[in-house]
User: What shape does this take?
Amino acid sequence: MRKKSLVVNAFLNGLRSVLNILFPLITFPYVTRVLSVNGIGIYNFSNTYVGYFVLIAGLGISTYAVREGAKYRDDIKKISNFSSQIFSINIYSTIIAYLLLLLSLIVFKNLNNYISCILIFSLQILFTTLGTEWIYIIYEDYSYITIRSIIFKVISIFFLFIFVRKPTDYLVYAGISVFAGVGSNILNFIHARQICSIKFVNNINWRYHLKPILVIFATSVAITIYMSADTTMLGIMKSDYDVGIYSTSVKIYTIIATLLGAISTVTIPRLAMLYGKKRFKEYKKILSELINTLNVIVLPGTVGLIMLSKDIVLIIAGEKYLPAVNSLQLISLAMIFSNFSMIFNQCVLIPAKRENKSLRNTIVTALINIILNVVFIPYLSYNGTALSTTIAEFMVMFMNGWSGRDIIKDVVFSRRILKNISTSVLGCLGIILICSLCRISYTSLVLRTVMSVILSVGIYMAILVLVKNEIIMSYMDKLRKRKLF
Assistant: This one.
């Protein structure tokens, strides 16, 4: 299969991720006005509740499948056998998830009011398994799943405005949400059979697959716990108001972080394939390019978000959420650490089969995060939660990097990367200057924000070209060769 462009894949994956965030942002203002408060409560609780069983059904299989499957993607017989075994394991985990879900509905009588909505959302479990998105990730084929995801989400928005018209339509809204999120997965499963032969099989090499899958699953559970611990502890130790302020910061941070992290995600299968085939020279070359590219993108993204945090909060949430500015600025720094932590984990430790170290690092980080929350929240409230998250992200980045130091040492501390970091920092100084000048020059909130972004991008690129940043110059050379300018 023809090698896919990492740049195109990064754009497509970023677009798909942003759509997954934008869909609820577009629909939520409408449904909050149409549905009753109780209906919204049932919808949100049911969705969150089923999410735990989706996690159980997933079992860390996707991450494991990408790592192992990338080695076989050039051999149709091996990849077909591997994919069938992984799919079969996923079927078993899906059955277990459904059994646990049904058992919980029987045991916990207080869930009776939520049963109908929970059963609708439970379709996500089956559809996620049938979607077999890991096959597309192995082959770096993001175009198919992105296009279908866009189509289903657009159709869902029309369905929403047509069928959700009264306060009791929360079950219809739940069905539309499932259709938007995983409806295209049936088509994905059908199309996946054109890539390789995938079917349910009984001859599964459990001894080979199960241990690493369970370790990766445990890591996913630990990540889920420590990411949700912030909001949970803030709600217990403070108030709903504090949670609302912090949630606004996190929502804005998540949108930006998702965009900036798109290129890392699409590089994982390529790096897993190269490491699995012991093509270490090519592996380190792409890893170096990935780190350099992230430096060029994430550093200015973080600085820009910090400088424009007040304007962004005002535009997205309004004046009553202005207290979220400080927590947003604090948590923005976590964007740098989380992106590089993901590289060290998904692109280094997982391909190198060091998932045990990844699990250890995640558990330690979760404990540190909880302790920091206990210390900071009583005094700093939502700002303390943001600070603890940032420190925890730095810790897990450091530990993941240390666990893979023998692989990345000559890459991370190379003269090439250090030089690119210094040029990016110079460009960030230009962003700070531009945002400060725009704050003085423009009184209109929207105009000030738009001009700050446009001029910041312009000055940042100009500085990088002036100091001959390697990444920017290489992309300019590619554009010249294609005669695009």
About this structure: The chain has a mean pLDDT of 85. The chain is about 85% helix and 0% strand. Residues 60 and 220 are 7 Å apart (CA to CA).
